[in-house]
């Protein structure tokens, strides 16, 4: 989640070419760090609770992060409340 929010910040505030390079570097770094940190944890989980339970647990963790991300990572392209009435008036006059 932290990585996605950092990527959104980079895309919003930096040039497209620079943000794409930062995306690639950030992705590779997070991939390698994630593998190094999570591999022993998941291996220990397999050994202690078994393969099936470990996969169900990992699936539940992914599900929680997916639901969390759906509610937290919303678009920044919302219309401000003070402009909504102007937009509604414009649409009514044009339609």
Key features of this structure:
95 residues, mainly alpha, 4 helices, 0% strand
Description:
The chain has 4 helices and no strands. By secondary structure, the chain is mainly alpha-helical. The termini are far apart. 86% of the residues lie in helices and 0% in strands. Helix 2 runs antiparallel to helix 3.
Give the H and E element order: HHHH
Largest sheet: none
N- to C-terminal distance: 42 Å
Secondary structure class reads: mainly alpha
Shape: elongated
How are the SSEs placed, and which strands pair?
Blueprint: H1 2-13, H2 16-49, H3 51-72, H4 81-94
Helix pairs in contact: 1-2, 2-3
State the gist of this model.
The protein is mainly α. It has 4 helices and no strands.
């Amino acid at each position: 989640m932290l990585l996605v929010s950092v990527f959104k910040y980079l895309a919003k505030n930096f040039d497209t070419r620079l943000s794409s390079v930062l995306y690639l570097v950030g992705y590779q770094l997070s991939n390698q760090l994630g593998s190094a940190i999570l591999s022993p944890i998941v291996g220990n989980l397999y050994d202690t609770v078994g393969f099936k339970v470990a996969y169900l647990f990992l699936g539940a963790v992914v599900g929680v992060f997916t639901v969390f991300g759906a509610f937290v990572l919303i678009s920044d392209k919302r219309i401000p409340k003070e402009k909504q009435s102007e937009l509604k008036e414009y649409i009514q006059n044009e339609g």
